[in-house]
Please model this.
Amino acid sequence: MFNEHRHHSSRMHRGCGRRGGRFGGSFGAHFRGNGQDWFGQDTRRVPANIEETQNNFIVHLFAPDLVKAHLKVATKDDVLTITYTPEENEQTETKFSRREYSNGAFERSFALNGKVLTEDITAGYADGVLKVVLPKNPETNIPGQDIPVD
Model:
């Protein structure tokens, strides 16, 4: 269903990424490193799980400590985009001796490939997980069938 467009922050990626599974692989190589995107803005990688049920695809995006008002979930040209952009004045003056996560900006995009009824998508954020429910399009989600061999 999805071909994921990843926005990574901590590694330089080569080639088209790993492939396989129902959702394909990464879309192209991303020329990023040192926690910045192509335009020099800080970004971060947030992990996502994609669950498939009989009637839905469900994206579970793990992103703790966010302000819900700064989350944006949108579709355009059959691509689902999840963006988080905190206000600049939200930066804390707290000094950390070790910091393994932050609530900085990120963006994740997924190609829907006509498999989702985009007008019926719902999203909710609770307990540090953004849950986006993508209802399957019955016209394009046809179950596989066995073909007899003569």
Remarks:
- Residues 6-41 have pLDDT under 50 and may be disordered.
- The two ends are 31 Å apart (CA to CA).
- DSSP finds no helices and eight strands in the chain.
- The chain has one domain: 3-92+101-135.
